[in-house]
C-alpha cells in the first residue's frame, strides 16, 4: 500500500506548453526516506509542488494517503534551501508558527499554549538548539537557522516531510552535521521524507530509495534502493559500499549531462 503515488504525471506550467515533468510514475510507502536527484531545472521542485497540492498535474494522478491530491495538505511539513525564518519572531515563535495555522492546533492554541511551547522547546533541544528559543534568526548561524526551519516543518507532526535542497547553502561540515540531525529525527519519530538534493552523497547517506531524474522534461530514469544497514553512522560514507552507490548514481547523472 503506497502512501504517495504518481501515476503517469505530467505538468506543463503554461496550458498546452512544454512539459516540466513528463510521465512520472512512482510509489512511496509510509515511513520511507526518498531522495530525488537530478540536474538543475529537471523538475524536482515541480515534483514537490505536485505532492503538496500547490499545483495540479496537467495529466495523470497524484495520490497521498489514498486520496487524490486536490489542494494543500496539512499532513505535510516543508523546508527549503533558504530557512525563511521571520526576522521579527524569536526562534521559538518561528517554530510554533504552523500551530497558529494548522488545525486542530490552531483552535487549541490558547488552551494548550504551555504544552505546545514545551513541545517546541523539546524539538529545538533534539536538534541541538536548547536555550536558543528566545534568540532571533539573525542571532543564529546558517546551520542553526536551518535546524530551526526543520523544527518548524515538524512541529505539527506531519506524516510527510518535504525538503527541497535544505542543506544546499551550508558548508560541508555543517551539512554533514545536519544529515545526522535529520537521520536522528526520522529514526526517533516515524514520518515519510521526500528530500530533493543535488548532493549524491547526501542522497545515499540518508535515503532508502534514490530516484534520478532526467533533464527537462523531467522523467524518472532510475530508482535505486540503498541497502546500507541502519542506523548509519557518518563513517559509512568512507566505505566501499557507500562509494559504490555514489559512483553508480554519478554515472547515471553523467549520462544525462552528455545526452
Ligand atoms: N512557476 C513556473 N512557471 C513557469 N515555468 C516554471 C515555473 N516553475 C518552474 N518552471 C520551469 O519548470 C522546469 C522545472 O523547474 P523546477 O521544478 O524548479 O526544477 P528544479 O527544482 O529541478 O531545479 C524549469 O525549466 C523551470 O524553468
Ligand atoms: Mg528546485
Bound molecules: adenosine-5'-diphosphate, magnesium ion
Helix content: 25-40%
Largest sheet: 6 strands, mixed
CATH class: Alpha Beta
Strand order in the sheet with the most strands: 6-7-8-3-9-10
The stretches of 5 or more residues where confidence is low (pLDDT under 50) are none
Query: Could you tell me the radius of gyration in angstroms?
Result: 18 Å
Shape: globular
Label the CATH architecture.
3-Layer(aba) Sandwich
What proportion of the residues form beta strands (DSSP E)? 15-25%
Number of separate helices = 7
Mean pLDDT across every amino acid position:
94
Keywords: ATP-binding, Cell membrane, Membrane, Nucleotide-binding, Transport
Domain ABC transporter: 4-240
Family: Belongs to the ABC transporter superfamily.
Organism: Azonexus hydrophilus
Name the descriptors.
259 residues; alpha/beta; Rossmann fold; 6-stranded mixed sheet; 4-stranded antiparallel sheet; 7 helices; 10 strands; globular; binds adenosine-5'-diphosphate; binds magnesium ion; AAA+_ATPase; ABC_transporter_ATP-bind; ABC_transporter-like_ATP-bd
Outline the structure in words.
- This protein is of the alpha/beta class and 259 residues long.
- It has a single domain, classed as P-loop containing nucleotide triphosphate hydrolases (Rossmann fold).
- The chain contains seven helices and ten strands.
- Strand 4 and strand 5 form a beta hairpin.
- Helix 6 crosses helix 7.
- The protein is globular, with a radius of gyration of 18 Å.
- The model has no long low-confidence stretch (mean pLDDT 94).
Amino acid at each position: 500500500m503506497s502512501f504517495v503515488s504518481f501515476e503517469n504525471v505530467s505538468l506543463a506550467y503554461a496550458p498546452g506548453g512544454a512539459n516540466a515533468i513528463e510521465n512520472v510514475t512512482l510509489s512511496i510507502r509510509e515511513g520511507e526516506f526518498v531522495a530525488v536527484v537530478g540536474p538543475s531545472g529537471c523538475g524536482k521542485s515541480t515534483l514537490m509542488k505536485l505532492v503538496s497540492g500547490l499545483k495540479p498535474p496537467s495529466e495523470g494522478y497524484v495520490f497521498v494517503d489514498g486520496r487524490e491530491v486536490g489542494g494543500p495538505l496539512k499532513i505535510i511539513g516543508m523546508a527549503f534551501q533558504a530557512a525563511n525564518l521571520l526576522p521579527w519572531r524569536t526562534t521559538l515563535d518561528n517554530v510554533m508558527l504552523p500551530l497558529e495555522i494548522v488545525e486542530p492546533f490552531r483552535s487549541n492554541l490558547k488552551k494548550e499554549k504551555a504544552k505546545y511551547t514545551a513541545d517546541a522547546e523539546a524539538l529545538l533541544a533534539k536538534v541541538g538548539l536548547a536555550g536558543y528559543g528566545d534568540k532571533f534568526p539573525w542571532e543564529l548561524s546558517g546551520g542553526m537557522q536551518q535546524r530551526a526551519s526543520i523544527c518548524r516543518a515538524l512541529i505539527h507532526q506531519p506524516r510527510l516531510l518535504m525538503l527541497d535542497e535544505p542543506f544546499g547553502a551550508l558548508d560541508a561540515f555543517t551539512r554533514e552535521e545536519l544529515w545526522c540531525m535529520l537521520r536522528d529525527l526520522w529514526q526517533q519519530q516515524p514520518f515519510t521524507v521526500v528530500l530533493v538534493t543535488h548532493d549524491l552523497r547526501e542522497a545515499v547517506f540518508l535515503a532508502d530509495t534514490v530516484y534520478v531524474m532526467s533533464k527537462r522534461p523531467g522523467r524518472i530514469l532510475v530508482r535505486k534502493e540503498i541497502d546500507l544497514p541502519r542506523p548509519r553512522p557518518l563513517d559509512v560514507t568512507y566505505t566501499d559500499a557507500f562509494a559504490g552507490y555514489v559512483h553508480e548514481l554519478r554515472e547515471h547523472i553523467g549520462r544525462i549531462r552528455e545526452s
